[in-house]
Design a protein that fits this description.
The protein contains 4 helices and 5 strands; from the N terminus they run αβααβββαβ. The chain is an alpha+beta fold. Strands 2-1-3-4-5 form a 5-stranded mixed beta sheet. Strand 3 and strand 4 form a beta hairpin. The longest helix is centred in the N-terminal third of the chain and has 21 residues, at 7-27. It is globular and about 50 Å long. The N and C termini lie far apart (32 Å).
């Protein structure tokens, strides 16, 4: 993060944080992409960009965040989807070409993609 040099810089960061919190609270949807070095090496950066692009294309508000290594390096890229009132679902080996189906079935239709799930909390 660049240094904050002016009051306007600080206000901009505050506004961005408030918008992210509002989106998270309003939509109740958080998508987390594992971005440890193992995830990045497996293509997590491209997967995350595909998630962001798909959400924008479909005009879906969701909070997208990243975390470090989740501990299942062989299953990277890992993507968690957590919606209000629903269990958190972890998907394994999520490639960019899988994201459209994941968003369509899980977020829009409310049906997790069973064959890609590696965890449910």
């Amino acid at each position: 993060m660049p240094k904050l040099k002016t009051l306007e810089d600080l206000k901009r960061v505050r506004d961005e944080a408030q918008q992210a919190l509002k989106t998270r609270l309003d939509t109740g949807t958080t998508i987390t992409v594992g971005m440890g070095t193992c995830g990045i090496a497996a293509g997590a950066r491209e997967t995350m960009h595909a998630v962001l692009d798909e959400l924008a294309k479909r005009q879906i508000d969701a909070h997208v965040t990243t975390v470090g290594c989740i501990g299942q390096c062989v299953k990277e890229p890992l993507v968690d989807i957590e919606q209000a009132g629903q269990p958190r679902i972890t998907y394994a080996n999520v490639r960019p070409d899988m994201v459209s189906r994941l968003i369509d079935e899980h977020l829009i239709k409310g049906q997790p993609v069973a064959e890609w799930i590696v965890g449910k909390m």
